[in-house]
Write a structure and sequence with these properties.
The protein has 657 residues and is an alpha+beta fold. It has five domains: 100 residues, Rossmann fold (3-Layer(aba) Sandwich), CATH 3.40.50.20; 70 residues, 2-Layer Sandwich (Dna Ligase, domain 1), CATH 3.30.1490; 242 residues, D-amino Acid Aminotransferase, Chain A, domain 1, CATH 3.30.470.20; 119 residues, Glycoprotein, Type 4 Pilin; 68 residues, Beta Barrel (OB fold (Dihydrolipoamide Acetyltransferase, E2P)), CATH 2.40.50.100. Helix content is 28%, strand content 33%. It has 18 helices and 39 strands. An eight-stranded antiparallel beta sheet has the order 14-13-10-11-12-15-22-20, with helices on both faces. The radius of gyration is 29 Å and the shape is globular. The chain starts with 5 loop residues before the first strand and ends with a strand. About 3% of the residues have low confidence. The structure holds adenosine-5'-diphosphate.
Length: 657
């Protein structure tokens, strides 16, 4: 038996935190490592000790063996858990950890190496009689041979980087004339992502399901399965929703799948936690796809349904213990489903997004488990995977777990950056998802139905909330500075107008305070009484004219207000009101409200303009702001040129007075 007292987690974000939670529960001590970009993250704050290991660039920090081993030495860590991604499937790293006299929490370097290349792994597994997708894994990589093999297998085929992972670099060819381009770009991407241009070819299955089996083995010859997970809901070949049990399996198929996975594990004398992945066609035939020799993002659903903490088992196995349970002790109870909350834009091909996290809040629902990677005040940076958190629900039935998770997402607030939150909630409610008719193509095929529907009422509610929130914020500033800003109070019973933009749409809100926290508000052509029922930023509760109380969350950032409603989050930009008469120095002059760059001048000296006509466009704080004419009139003089940098308060245009 080896001693483990202090575990260093060679990772970041939600998985580092998740591992350390178990480390702490086991009475052990945890060490986090962090790059310059991650100093301010929940994992670093949670750890008993944290060590800075280098700059943001992963190659210079999380991927640097010496930096990690040095951190372990410095802190007296006796074990290293690699999490997933980064160094988790690098056999040389596992070996280096062992050579340094530390415990590597994972399988043997030999098993990692054997499963590392898809080509070798498939050859090994095929010998054991596990079904493989018809394909070509042979050594000859010449274009002519690859093309001939593709045609022999029969189109469509999929080319995959042999050294690949994370869905990267896979190319589908449906017609013979696409083969050259697929091979060429596949090689190029394989080389750049994995430093190895080798491609394998597989028959491309239409609308397959992704199923995988969790394995757990000790170093005394016991290898168990912890049943399956279904991860068919994918975008860009990457999972976003994972569940167990799979609605696609009969008890017989489940048993055959789990036995096939055990056979794969035995082929490499597998120890510790690992996952065998399969794809399954519509007829229920499944084929081995790869083995991941590490913990996976979706391991939580297995934990919930089996009641087994996989990280705890990993640590026990790593210190040489025998598994304390047998196969028949592992049972599936209820249903668990997980979503990956990402900073990404579903409306724009799921491209990763970055930005500040102005608010991150999840509801305290029974059965909801959250593994956060960031918190309010943090930031999603371009350096790493943009996952914000995992949200998991365990319930008695599949229907219940999906409904609760969808509702949890409605009530979760992530403000400040673009996320897939609304998309995930719609996905969980899609009829095919609810009925369990899943496929890896579902998201791509159903994109129209999954896009965000227009919701004018919600947008108006958000605009009223943003307006009254700003009013309330100004008032509390007044209260804090007695006498200093009383001017505002003098105006409070006058009609005021707040103009917002949501995307390209204008939303204006006219309001007047009638009495304590009650306002007469006109929005979208209808006038009524609204009341601030509670305000404790960022919480904001508003009673609309029909007496309904809306529980919202509001944060502001410069000119932008972010409003969380349970029907989706709304971003509103204050329409910049360039001072006109307010500029005493130059009558009719338009000033820059903040430093920026003139990107477009729309008018010339002497030009007649109409009310609302665009005069010029200024780029400030990475946003474009259009200055419009508040009245019909004539441009007296344009004082700036396109491309010119301007300072705050600089006069840009003067109108005829
Ligand atoms: P990676 O190692 O990059 O994650 P996988 O081999 O695990 O790649 O495949 C990832 C996903 O790509 C699968 O879940 C499936 O959606 C799709 N895929 C892979 N192979 C095939 C295939 N032969 N036919 C259809 N889809 C496939």
């Amino acid at each position: 038996m080896k001693t483990i007292e202090r575990v260093l987690v060679a990772n970041r974000g939600e998985i580092a935190l998740r591992i350390m939670r178990t480390v702490r529960r086991m009475g052990l001590s945890s060490v986090a490592v962090f790059s310059d970009a991650d100093a301010n993250t929940p994992a670093v704050r949670f750890a008993d000790t944290a060590v800075r290991i280098g700059p943001a660039l992963a190659k210079a920090s999380y991927l640097r063996f010496e930096a990690i081993l040095e951190a372990a030495k410095k802190t007296g860590a006796d074990a290293i858990h690699p999490g997933f991604g980064f160094l988790s499937e690098n056999p040389d790293f596992a070996q280096a950890v062992i050579d340094a006299g530390l415990v590597f929490v994972g399988p043997t370097p030999k098993a990692i190496r054997a499963m590392g290349l898809k080509r070798e792994a498939k050859a090994l597994v095929g010998q054991r009689g596990v079904p493989l997708v018809p394909g070509f894994d042979g050594g000859d990589q010449s274009t002519a041979v690859l093309k001939a093999k593709a045609l022999e297998i029969g189109l469509p085929v999929i080319f995959k980087p042999s050294a690949g992972g994370g869905g990267k670099g896979m190319k589908i060819a449906r017609a013979p004339d696409e083969l050259d381009a697929c091979i060429e770009s596949g090689r190029r991407e394989a080389q750049s992502a994995f430093s190895d241009p080798t491609l394998i070819i597989e028959k491309y299955l239409e609308r397959p399901r992704h199923l995988e089996v969790q394995l757990l083995g000790d170093s005394h010859g016991t290898l168990l399965h912890l049943y399956e997970r279904e991860c068919s809901l994918q975008r860009r070949h990457q999972k976003v929703v994972e569940e167990t049990p799979s609605p696609a399996l009969t008890p017989e198929t489940r048993e055959r799948l789990c036995q096939a996975a055990l056979e794969v594990g035995r082929a490499v004398d597998y120890t510790n936690a690992g996952t065998v992945e399969f794809i399954m066609d519509a007829a229920g035939h499944f084929y081995f796809s790869e083995m991941n020799t590490r913990l996976q993002v979706e391991h939580r659903v297995t934990e919930q349904v089996t009641g087994i903490d996989l990280v705890e088992q990993q640590l026990r196995v790593a210190r040489g213990e025998k598994l304390a349970f047998t196969q028949k002790d592992v049972v599936q109870r209820g249903h668990a489903v997980q979503v990956r909350l990402y900073a990404e834009d579903p409306a724009n091909q799921f491209l990763p997004a970055i930005g500040p996290v102005l608010d991150f809040w999840t509801p305290g629902y029974g059965g909801l488990l959250v593994d956060p990677g960031i918190e309010t005040g943090g930031e999603v940076t371009p350096h790493y995977d943009p996952m914000i958190a995992k949200l998991v629900v365990h319930a008695d039935t599949r229907t219940q777990s999906f409904a609760t998770l969808a509702r949890s997402l409605d009530h979760t607030s992530v403000l400040g950056l673009t996320t897939n939150k609304g998309f995930l909630a719609r996905l969980l409610r899609h009829p095919n998802v609810v009925s369990g008719a899943l496929s890896t193509q579902l998201i791509a095929e159903e994109m129209n139905r999954l896009s965000e529907p227009a919701d004018v009422e919600r947008d108006r509610l958000a605009a009223v909330a943003a307006t009254l929130f700003a009013f309330e914020a100004r008032r509390s500033t007044d209260d804090l500075l007695p006498g200093a800003l009383t001017g505002f109070r003098n105006n409070r019973f006058r009609d005021q107008r707040h103009e917002w933009k949501r995307g390209d749409e204008d939303v204006s809100v006219d309001y007047r305070e009638l009495g304590d926290r009650v306002f007469q508000v006109t929005v979208g052509g209808s006038t009524g009484r609204w009341r601030i029922a509670a305000a404790c930023a960022p919480c904001f509760e508003l009673e609309s004219p029909d007496g309904v109380i809306h529980r919202l969350r509001v944060v502001t950032n410069g000119e932008t207000a972010h409003v969380h409603t349970e029907r989706g989050d709304v971003v509103l930009r204050e329409v910049p009101r360039f001072p006109v008469a307010a500029d005493a120095a130059v009558k009719g002059g338009f000033m820059a409200p903040m430093p920026g760059k003139v990107v477009k001048v729309n008018v010339k000296d002497g030009e007649t303009v109409r009310r609302g006509q665009a005069l010029l466009v200024l780029e400030a704080m990475k946003m474009e702001q259009t200055t419009t004419s508040p009245t019909d009139g004539v441009v007296k003089q344009v004082l700036v040129r396109e491309g010119e940098q301007v300072t705050a308060g600089q006069v840009l245009i003067v109108m005829e007075a």
